[in-house]
Design brief:
With 311 residues, this protein is an alpha+beta fold. 46% of the residues lie in helices and 14% in strands.
């Protein structure tokens, strides 16, 4: 991918993020800041080998470092969450997409860029995040190493969020100029605007969501008034990065789908994992689970299995 192709892809990503004004990405930036703070406390030296890093190859990647299994799992979930927000192409794992976009952004950071809205990294800052060959004939390398991964990804997400806000301001300015050029609206146009113009991004509730297990590892998700989408456990943020399989929380959620609406007893830790992962996936603040003393937990959204699940 040439550097201008990456810039064009970035513009698409920014437009995609602008749908919710960058709010979901802002939440993940907070999570990345927490992970970065933990790393700085546990491993003050920026070159400490235990700090999270990723080796990217022409195809695929390998994550290294991570001072504990819990920290590594938290980081993987956040990285995959960022990848989902960036809008990966069909069949591309969210984590792979996120890491590849970050790597290309860092590589392109060494190239000339005429964009007044972007504050560039200096050579010292760039050396803190990237180890890779230089571009040849405007063709950035596809392999290299991103070090201090949590901090680097936080920087990249902050840049995207800044561009997202600029996109919204620029769009609003363009719309305002168009309205001025068109002159004042007629009475009929004003009435249509009042009656039919809705919010840019509707507020979603758990009651609007339907999750249907179609197999052990895949679900369809659908909000009221929106098209259904098919996702696997990794795209939903339920992957156990240590073994590359669904985590225990996914298995519990799948079991909960066996009897729609019925409460089920589950371990408190698994219930909390489900809450955290679903909140992060759907950007809804309230709890997706309801607890009834003596009975257990039930879903606040419609959760069931398709007729073909057991076939």
């Amino acid at each position: 991918m040439k550097r201008w192709d990456h810039r064009a892809r970035t513009s698409e990503v920014v437009r995609y993020l602008s749908r919710d004004r960058g709010l979901a990405l802002a939440g993940l930036i907070v999570e990345l800041a927490k992970l970065t703070e933990v790393e700085c406390q546990e491993m003050p030296a920026s070159l400490d080998r235990r700090r999270l890093k990723v080796y990217l190859y022409d195809v695929g990647h390998r994550v290294g470092g991570g001072y504990s299994g819990d920290f590594l799992e938290r980081a993987r979930l956040v990285i995959a969450g960022v990848g989902l927000l960036l809008g990966p192409s069909q069949g591309v794992p969210p984590m792979e997409f996120c890491l590849r976009m970050l790597f290309r952004e860092l590589v392109c950071e060494r190239e000339p860029l005429y964009h007044p809205q972007i504050a560039r990294l200096n050579s010292e800052q760039l050396g803190r995040y990237l180890y890779a060959a230089f571009s040849v004939d405007s063709l950035p390398p596809e392999s290299g190493e991103v070090i201090n991964l949590c901090e680097a990804l936080k920087w990249y997400c902050q840049r995207l969020n800044g561009l997202c806000q600029y996109e919204l301001v620029d769009r609003k300015t363009s719309e305002s100029l168009k309205e001025q050029a068109a002159g004042p609206p007629t009475h009929a146009e004003s009435a249509r605007k009042v009656n039919h113009e809705g919010p840019v991004q509707p507020i979603r509730e758990w009651s609007d969501l339907t999750v249907t297990f179609i197999s052990d590892e895949r679900v369809t998700i659908k909000f009221s008034g929106a098209d259904a989408e098919t996702r696997n456990y990794e795209e939903m943020g339920f992957s156990d990065g240590r073994i590359g399989k669904p985590c225990l929380a996914w298995m519990v959620l799948r079991e909960l789908s066996r009897e729609p609406g019925a409460p089920m007893r589950m371990d408190k830790k698994r219930a909390q994992e489900i809450r955290t992962k679903l909140r992060r996936r759907f950007s809804i603040d309230s709890s997706p689970l309801q607890f009834e003393k003596g009975l257990g937990h039930s879903a606040r959204f419609k959760l069931h299995r398709s007729p073909s699940f057991d076939t």
